[in-house]
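User: My collaborator sent over this chain with a note saying "see what the structure looks like." That's all I know about it. Can you take a look?
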Amino acid sequence: MTLVAPSRDHVGTRLKSRDRPPWLIQPLYLLPAFFLLLVFFVVPALTTIGISFTDWQLGSSSIDFIGLENYKELFTDEVYRKSLINTLKLDLFVVPVSFFLALGLALAINGLNRFQGFWQTVYFLPVTTTLVAMAQVWSWILHPQFGMVAQLFKLFGLTPINWLNDQSVVLYTIGFISIWQLVGYYTVLFIAGLLNVPKDLYEAALIDGARSPWDKFCHVTWPMLGPTSLFIFIITIIKSSQIFDTVKVLTQGGPNNASEILLYTLYSEGFEFFRTGLASAIATLFFAIMLLLTLYQMRVFEKYVHYR
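Assistant: Without extra context I'll predict from the sequence alone. Here is the result:
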């Protein structure tokens, strides 16, 4: 048997490739992800921002630069201002209710000795449903004459409320449906956070005099839920600002623009009136608001978050 030694050139090539520094090789693995991010996020975002400074209409062959006129219209037109105000009102209603309701449910379920999985499934089911289909169910439940809620009102001698056509309650009705759909998801996240709280911290708190459940919650549970709470608070604001399906199916922004919110206005301007320039300005404004709110929350609340 004859043994053939590898050539010096081949060995040298292998040694050279092996001796390459990691900082030169590792960035190459990021190129596919960077390319996808560039193509599907950065380029469309920059294109949208550019179109927001034009008067382009979808399907039109002409396009003119008009500067900040679209943005001026957003802040001066009554419908657009009402849309922005309604979005803020919806956030102020949905965010705290969803957050604290999910926290309460998580604490209650986590304290059960039995059937924890069952109740987690029950509250998570709305998350798995198609909101467009469930909106049709809600339209029947909230029907002012034949709906289940109207029948309950009549049973107790109360006058039924037209939940989807009363300007004073329609926005909060939309918010309630959003809470119903999303609170189960936040509950599961809180439960995951509770399961990660070390048990020995409760024992140490008991030695230090924290005997009541409230004391244990304030001194142990709540501080240790800091990262989870910050994450849920941020995504709750984003999700509540992205409500669209319910408005589109149930109210179309009515009555009298009482349920007109920013994303529905974007849809109307872009795909019903084909004012692509104005729709792009709305999208840019929406992105800027979400970005600023997220950065503000992270900066303000980060110092209260305890990471292990």
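A starting point for your reply to your collaborator: The first helix runs from residue 8 to 18.
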